What does this fold into?
Amino acid sequence: MSISEPLPYTDEVERETRAIYRRASHILPAAEWPLYAPYVAAINRLKRERNAVILAHNYQVPEIFHTVADIVGDSLALAYEAAKAQADVIVLCGVHFMAETAKLVNPSKTVLVPDLRAGCSLAESITGADVRLLREKYPGVPVVTYVNTSAEVKAESDVCVTSGNAVKIVRALGEKRVLFIPDEYLAKYVQTQVPEIEILAWKGHCEVHERFTASEIRSYRDGDPTLVVLAHPECPPDVLAEADYVGSTQQMIDYLGAKQPPRVVMITECSMAGNVSVGFPEIDFVKPCNLCPHMKRNTLPKILHSLQTMQYEVTVDERVAERARASVERMFALMK
It folds into this structure.
């Protein structure tokens, strides 16, 4: 059956997926379930046959996040959680650089992406050749690289960071000056936290986070000054200045668990709020609607097709992988 032909919703499918729908019914409309359920059933059967695990980033649509995903989270957490899974095949529902990172951490496993076009404006803003030119321009200055980059860029770097540990890693390097690539806004945020260190930034941006504005944040507060604003550090500085808390996707979730604010807006990709709200039914979520077009390339039919055909496999040249892996491992060494 081709990827374009819908699967039938049968009594057998209804029985197979009944428990799954009960768990997801508060976020997936009943009218849509007959469209999703046949794919959910087929994907879960194929996962068992292939000994496969599905990783879904926090920005995935709910019909993926809540029905077929085995592991959910941010990009680096997904890669390392996959390493713990006794699976032969990893299907990465995110974007391409995340699949490369999963392959770096799980070199012996087959890593698949449902759509090769699922890229990232931030990762694509810089190349390995760009990093080599930066090293020529700033000899001896360490290159600190956000994990939202290609394996090629990681291989040219001294250490990787996440949005959650960037400040700690830059401080732990003990340098007076660092190159921070590729996210300009994350670099500027880190600079505010370590004023004693000079941060040289690249002008890469996430096309989702850069669209938020300070006036938009103020408009969310209109009529409700108690609204709590959580913002991702990939947002512009004026947006972060309006926020009550700045943190990575996982740090936002941790904040919700610790503080339990009655009403909140998460200034990040739209699907994040919907997916997270399932775990916090007592919190009222205001949901901004900046969508990542690349994350949304992943669909249930494409996941099924990926498992049926074992496409599309993501590989990393071992010479590149070895060096890229070293920059990731140095991050963990500095965290200790």
